[in-house]
Amino acid sequence: MPNRAAAHRAADELPGDLVGRGLAAARHAIETEAAAVSALAGRLDGVFLDVLTAVAACEGHLVVTGLGKSGLVGRKIAATLASTGTPATFIHAGDALHGDSGAVTARDLVLALSASGETAEVCAFAQMLRDRGIPVIAMTGAEESTLAGLATYTLDTMVLREADPLNLAPTASTTAALVMGDALACALVVLREFTHHDFARFHPSGALGRKLLDAGEEA
Alpha-carbon torsion 105, 109, 110, 116, what sign? Predict the structure, then answer.
């Protein structure tokens, strides 16, 4: 594993202007993503409350779906929801078109992620769900997109630009989606009156789980 001195020597071998531009790009990325996240707070409007109410009242699972980077974010959102008291699972949009859509029941809700709202597999899955009468929550940066048109509710995660210098790589958009998912999970913790004891029951292993369980035994 390279040590810090070796890393400094490697940096010294690069042109100074290139290093400076790289650091500037890193700072700009952080500032861009921070601004994208900050803008979300003003979008927690009536639609967000409708989504919150629908998920809290759901008798089945909140099934999260996505593809690519949005799919990776969707997996994390589903994991956070499940660990904080909301029954949730993830189905890959591609797999859904090859049989996994059968796991979704009439008691479920589906949260579909696509920054563009035009991801073919996600839209096709959403159409299948709509045809079956299963409500879809779209999380997208394009409220006029195909996915938004298929959805019962649309959570707006639009960003002004991506954080990378090319304005191409999913960066600010995936961060915005992740934070919107966290916002939903945190609101549901309050609505469900989810407690430290509940969290401990869901996390019996690991340092955090042991700490919470030990604290409960001492109380």
Answer: positive
CA angle 161, 166, 168 (to 5 degrees): 60
Distance CA 179, CA 82 (A): 16
pLDDT digits (tens, 9 = 90+) for 93-102: 999 999 999 9
CA distance 47 to 51: 6
Q: Which of 219, 177, 174, 176 is nearest to 196 (CA)?
A: 219
As a whole-number percent, the residues of the chain with pLDDT over 90 amount to 79
Q: First-to-last CA distance in the chain?
A: 45
Classify residue 193 as left (phi > 0), alpha (psi -120 to 50) or beta. Answer: left
What CATH number has the domain spanning 37-192?
3.40.50.10490
pLDDT in tens, 169-204: 999 999 999 999 999 999 999 999 888 887 877 777
Query: What pTM value is reported for the model?
Result: 0.88
Burial 81-106, CB ≥16 within 10 A → b, else e: bbebbbebbbbbbbbbeeebbeebee
Q: What are phi and psi of 62, to 5 degrees?
A: -90, 110
